[in-house]
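#lab-general

N.A. 3:47 PM
ok so I finally got the sequence cleaned up, no stray characters, all 176 residues accounted for. can someone with queue access submit it? mine expired

B.Y. 3:52 PM
send it over

N.A. 3:53 PM
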Amino acid sequence: MTAIVQRTNARSLPEDFERMFQEYHGLVYRAAYRITCNAEDAEDVLQTLFLRLLRRDTPSNFQSNPKRYLHRAAVNIALDIVRRRRRSVPPDESGESLVVDDRTGSATEAQQIVLKALSELSPKLAVMFVLKHVEGYDNQEIAKLAGTSRGAVAVMLFRARARLKKSIRTRMGQNS
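B.Y. 4:20 PM
back already:
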């Protein structure tokens, strides 16, 4: 069995794939970490994204702008992880969320509240919100990434902020 594993591990990756990984792995990791607030989850996003690229034919929109494609894919995968975490982690017995030390790389209570609220948004709204308010893209850049108009982006960002505000207030017990 170890001989099979060694042969599989010894297989070399295409040179262009290795070059692409070296160039963009930091971008993918940082984007994922900003959303998940967890180093292990960010590494999972990195691994998932590059394994998908290795196993499948590269999409056409990847060829035109690999940086943007990888960034958006990292955001999507990270949001999926946050959503899965929300569904699979039961609250503790006191009903309050757990506050974890920042030195461990885990989210604080406030970050957890925001992440839970963000995970309740539709994927499209969540991605646009993260691109705007976490990654710093402007509306024109987001429109280009999403294949829509700048006006549509503005409307979706407004909706995302309103839903997040309502959800966060509800979680914090401020029903207004």
